[in-house]
Amino acid sequence: MPELLLDGQPLKVDEGTTVAAALLLGGDGSSRTSVSGQRRAPFCGMGVCQECRVSTDGQRRLACQTLCRDGMRVESRP
Amino acid sequence: MKVDILIIGAGPAGMAAALAAAPSGARIALLDDNPAVGGQIWRDGPQAHLPPQVHEQRRRLAAQSTIQLLTASRVIAQAGPKQLLVEDAACARVIEYDKLILCTGARELLLPFPGWTLPGVTGAGGLQALIKGGLPVAGERLVIAGSGPLLLASAATAQANGARVLQIAEQASWAAVAGFAAQLPRWPHKLLQALGLWHPGYRASSHVIAALGDSHLQAVRLSINGQVKEVPCERLACGFGLIANTQLGQALGCRIEHNSIAVDNWQASSQVDIYAAGECTGFGGSEKALVEGAIAGHAAVGDLAAARHLWPQRQRWQGFARALQHSFALGEPVKQLATPDTLICRCEDIALADLREHGGWTPAKLASRCGMGACQGRICGAATQVLFGWQPPAPRPPFSPARIDTLLQLGQPE
Description:
heterodimer, A: mainly beta, Ubiquitin-like (UB roll), 5-stranded mixed beta sheet, 1 helix, 29% strand, B: alpha/beta, FAD/NAD(P)-binding domain, 7-stranded mixed beta sheet, 31% helix, FAD-dependent oxidoreductase (chain B), Opine_Oxase_asu/HCN_bsu (chain B)
């Protein structure tokens, strides 16, 4: 079972879990803050809307198309 | 990297195209932006239950040494004639092809309504995809709204994973839904599917009015057959049907007809050596995608007899596609859900009131930044097309947000 760090907190998830799912398993489910300051969460679920973009290991990634890996660091806060 | 056949999209159409082309010995690359093959309908994950047929297809793909799977990879730009620039998590490369098969699928039509940006609101197919990827929904109260058979499929997935589906609001009328159901015996397998998905909370002539809550969804206001009703819930899944992903085809010069990539009997597009198959040629489900993909794969390697052999099968599923598209046509009420302060562009946070006066996509974009964010107008462009009849412009590279390193490969000799 991969263990990742979500906004600094350790989280164990099942193999094959997306980062989008991990956001709710280990937090409030939100992924980013919009240009006018609203919190947003994964929306289209299939890599189109870009609402679920987070930072994983320092790279911008779409949470819904990224699988959790052991040791991954995910940041959803600016 | 050089291949004989490059297939963009590894859903049912792309998988079928690769398997049909493989016996010729052609070198094939099958590319998808998701971490695994299967597309949306056969998306794998900790909470996904794939039909045995899919495992068989995946096993056959993996067994073909001439098929290279490039998952988690996106097409960023055209790098030259018959060359596409592709990026994955680690690196970028130019792929040169002899024949290209576009199996780029469809996305959900997501229409704006008050509160649609609240966490807790997702697409309908979107929720299904998120659940398959492990999103926990056990014990959550869920409302589903929008249009099309995907609403029932999404409800079934959510219920199987412990959610309580309180209501399903379909915007089409009972007459339209019944008319669709009456045609289903022509495709018995689809009829059985539909019967298995039936839900007591399903209502026709019904739609969402608003998602309510401060920082997270707390309730949904619905119009149920003309009666306004508020339903407390943790989650709302809302999808208004499907739209074909035509961007790449359009950028490569393929003719677009009825918002789909136009193809002939061989699944060939208007551009030489570019084929298209599946939802990007008009949505109609996985059966249509499988047969179109196989025809495209056979045709691309010149096995016209094998391709022709599948024409009757394709005709049968195209009939289903027509019934589907006709029955769930969008009515006026769902085109008027947004209020003046509803955000239309979710990337740049542009409200309806700041857009409507501009009278067209380009003036609106220039004046407001609508469509200039990360999704590049894929959500708001489709929405303003439905709401105002604005025609989104032809897509320009980069087709997806990309790394600078990737873009630097453009113009560099191999």
